Amino acid sequence: MKLITAIVKPFKVDEIREALSELGIQGMTLTEVKGFGRQKGHTELYRGAEYAVDFLPKIRIELAVPDALLDSVLEAIQNSARTGRIGDGKIFVQALDHVVRIRTGECDENAL
Amino acid sequence: MNNADLSWMLVSTLLVLMMAAPGLALFYSGMVRRKNALSMLSQTLLVFSLGVVLWFIYGYSLAFTSGNAFIGGLDKLFLNGLFTPGDQKFTLSGSLPELLFAAFQATFAGLTCALVVGSLAERARLSSILVFTLIWFTLAYLPICHMVWFADPEHGGLLNERGALDFAGGTVVHINAGMAGLVGAWLIGPRLNYRREAMPPHNLPLTFIGAALLWVGWFGFNAGSALSANANAALAFFNTMLAAAIGVLAWTIGEWLTKGHPSLLGACSGAIAGLVGITPAAGFVAPSGALAIGLITSLACLWGVNGLKRLLRADDTLDVFGIHGLGGIVGALLTGLFNAPSWGGPGTAAGHSVWMQLWIQLEGVLLTLVWSGVAALIAFKLAQWICGGLRVSPEHEREGLDIRTHGESGYQN
């Protein structure tokens, strides 16, 4: 099992969700976050006062997947999140040791 | 008494009332950080209300009764004599009950005082603002109002007698408030971490709503200053609309060309700049003059908040001087120019030459700047002494005025 954390542009979230649903992914967690990568931030100008805004709004998607689905999930996120421009985001994959479904007590792949 | 005039002036008074709260209050509140959003709403409402109450107690009398060239008398304290309850008799001012004229002017007095708080936003003590308002209203607003607007064959106001043109308050309201704001910003000092920490507006949609309400209310301000439902009110009405519209476009395009983005705050600021510029001229120039005044004032104020603000080295937080002060100066001078028949205007009864009228306008501007500046200096120093300081403690300022001063916060998350 793997835990996937994807940082993406906010307006791409619906497309990603649809692509993952088609693969049979049952659930995911979304968080509104702020950050920057190579694209840095931007400047804002209010009545002559200029501010450098380092952190841009992003969405963090977290989902746990069985090993068999990992490659297709990564491909689906990558294809649907890509605009080709700087700031498209990143996907992190981590090993996942143990999962428990709280309602039933099911464990690991049965709980995904 | 004329009922058409009466109706229009009741509506105009309500429109100007709307400019204070909600208009100005929302306009200012949106531009500060979220921890001070309520303090701006609160300060605007309180200061406006104080101005109206003082106007009732002694303001109207000192501004609009016969006295000397600088200030009126005390004959109409508490609006004495305007209304006799026993026989329901109302004295008249032109074709209006004098009580309605006093009410209309009360909204001007309150609004002018409220404009000043924008310069001191995010760090001023509420008590010092209120004490300052009491003193400055007495020492600056009332004399300048009397000097500009009190017409009397024997003891008219100084600038009125000289023939200065100020249709709806370019000098009385905008230069006056702008100068007081600038003096206040110098004396109180910049906000903590000014220029080192980002202090962007917390809610520009609020500012937009406030600016839009100000624009609508300004029709009462300007077209109401005809004091009658007549053709001059119609001229002032159209000029007001046109100057604000060209103000929006001029600021936006100017900003787009020089800064790269046509911002919403810029468009709102342009509307206000155009409105400030046309205020002294509203009923004294043709629409072509209004278009020129709106355009020039808007571009001047764009420089006022970008270039002039840096030169002045004051944290005039919400650009009270950059927009109201400078816009009022430019508008007052251009009123002299575009009023002349040779520049498309109706001219004055006195028939001064363009240069003579411009000189008279300049006198009005300079006198207002000096008078308001000195009065503000005295008022702020007294407020500082009485209240034990002009600004809140650094800790208080960091946490925000909403929680520390008012015990409430505008947003829960």
Structure report:
- The complex is a heterodimer of chains A (112) and B (413).
- With 112 residues, chain A is α+β, with helices and mostly antiparallel strands.
- Chain A has helices spanning 13-22, 70-81; strands at residues 2-8, 29-35, 42-46, 49-53, 56-65, 89-95.
- Chain A has a 4-stranded antiparallel beta sheet with strand order 2-5-1-6, with helices on one face. In chain A, strands 3-4 form a two-stranded antiparallel ribbon.
- The model of chain A has no long low-confidence stretch (mean pLDDT 92).
- In chain B, strands 1-2 form a two-stranded antiparallel sheet. A two-stranded antiparallel ribbon of chain B has the order 3-4.
- In chain B, 58% of the residues are buried.
- In chain B, strand 3 and strand 4 (96-97) form a beta hairpin.
- Classes of the chains: A alpha+beta (112), B mainly alpha (413).
- The interface between A and B is medium-sized, with 9 and 18 residues.
In angstroms, what is the radius of gyration of chain B? Answer: 20 Å
Average residue-wise pLDDT of chain B:
96
Query: Topology as H/E string of chain B?
Result: HHEEEEHHHHHHHHHHHH
Biggest β-sheet: strands ordered side by side in the sheet of chain A: 2-5-1-6
Strand percent estimate of chain B: under 5%
- The chain-level structural class of chain B is mainly alpha
- Low-pLDDT residue intervals, each spanning 5 or more residues of chain A: none
Helix percentage range of chain B? 55-70%
Proportion in β-strands of chain A: 35-45%
State the separation between the terminal residues of chain B, measured CA to CA: 55 Å
The tally of helices of chain A reads 2
Helix content of chain A: 10-25%
The sequence of SSEs of chain A as H and E is EHEEEEHE
